[in-house]
Amino acid sequence: MATGYFSFSGQTPSLSAVLTTYASISAFMMVIRTILNEVIPRRMREFISSKLSEYFLFNFSNEFTFIIEQRWEAVISETYKAAEVYLPTIVGASTDSLLVGSNNTRNSTAVPKLAVPVGAKIIDNFEGMKLQWSLHMKEAKKYYYNDKKYYHLTCKKTDRDRVLENYFPYIARKAQKILEARQTINIYTYDHKHSSWQSAVFQHPSTIDTMAMDADLKKFIIDDLDTFVNRKGFFDNVGRAWKRGYLLYGPPGTGKSSLVAAIANYMKYNVYDLQLQSVKSDADLRNVLTTTTNRSIILIEDIDCNETVLHDRGRRSASPDKEKETENVSLDPGATLSGMLNFIDGLWSSCGEERIIIVTTNHKERLDPALLRPGRMDVHIEMGYCNPSGFRMLAKTYLGIKDHALFGRVDELIKKVDISPAEMALHLMKSDDPTIALESLVEFLDKKVIEETAKRDDKDEIEVAKE
To answer: Which residues cross the membrane (predicted)?
Structure first.
């Protein structure tokens, strides 16, 4: 009985036959592709390809991906920022790479901070769901566009609604707690070339307690800041953006920048140092300001030195129509005052909350009244020359003393001449010996009194000669 037997022996094609068949198929496919490319328009081909991809993904994949882009409409996405803060805290063994670095110049041996690099994958487990994060970047095709960063969050299709309703609010709350507990704050400067804020650790030692100012003024500032941060409900109820404007004015060296640092340290807010001179237009200004974060200080120093603000004021002051005080005027280059005011208390002021806007100037009288009114600059603080109480605070801070035989002499002299806290601190730093430092200060003040007296005498002689 013959047994059925099948074998490939004798039926295996030769290598040349295989190559010939492959070449024929390849040539046929190339002809088909050429015909399709010639007959079907490019957009139609892309549409068909995308639909086929969607079909296979929908029917044969069990995964769903959320895409979280860095910008959402006109502002930085709060969801993106929450992920950026939260993800470095859940790094596990499955994470294949991490960014590490430190910008703490005071402690080079400190443990570096962590960040998620492009392409890295981070696994999170939440309520029994396995979630995979990854960071991606699309390079800009034109030099004036930013590289676009975005996160992918992948989950099972069946978990999509739970992720949306439970997980995203969870990471937002976690990120908020992390930010509130931060021990270091950053100062940012805007890089117009790359259209982004660049940061460094803010390590200014100034505190409100060490400021050489009246005790009642210190108490007012602290009370005002505490009231501001605790009144979110109030701002919502009255329909106002949750922000506060401070104008610090006074001669150079009177501590305006130090007070900004003291406020930042007290509030634990990041500082965004805005250089108006580098802003190209109102649209550019809007883009710069809307990329700042909540719980921050927006600082505009020496605003009286900005030609845009002064020129804007001059153009409007010539108009008899007071109702048009904030009308935009054409200035090229640079942003206009009305563009800045629109962010401070206009419609764009609602893009963000819990912000403090601080403006400093050496010459308050040069500023446009439109900038100074309540709702824009809510608190005006004059930073003046040293008085006896300010001198004692500086002596305590720099020399560690509350009283000295030379205190009376210093009090007498600073009532006769103006001396800024910066000038006074320069002499108090000359020696750790209080007597030597105070003698240097007295010598400086005596010389200043003589110079001021000589100037007044010369002025009197000129006036007499005119008469």
So the answer is: 15-36
Q: Which of 101, 276, 257 is nearest to 189 (CA)?
A: 276
* Cis check: omega of the bond before 333, within 30 degrees of 0: yes
Lowest-pLDDT range of 147-156, 275-284, 323-332: 323-332
The residues near 381 (Cβ < 8 Å, ≥ 6 apart) are 217, 221, 246, 247, 248, 249, 259
Give the model's confidence band at 55: pLDDT under 50 very low, under 70 low, under 90 confident, else very high.
low
User: What global pTM score does this model have?
Assistant: 0.70
Listed range (267-276, 321-330, 374-383) with the worst mean pLDDT: 321-330
Phi, psi of 135, rounded to the nearest 5 degrees: -105, 135
Residue 300 φ/ψ, nearest 5 degrees: -120, 100
| 3-class secondary structure, 28 | helix
Of 368, 365, 362, 407, which is closest to residue 384 (Cα–Cα)?
362
Structure tokens at 50: 């995308």
Distances in whole angstroms, Cα of residue 297 to Cα of each of 105, 191, 265, 272: 22, 18, 11, 6
Which burial class, exposed, middle or buried, applies to 451 when counting CB atoms under 10 A from its CB (0-12, 13-18, 19+)? Answer: exposed
Q: How far is CA 211 from the centre of its chain?
A: 25
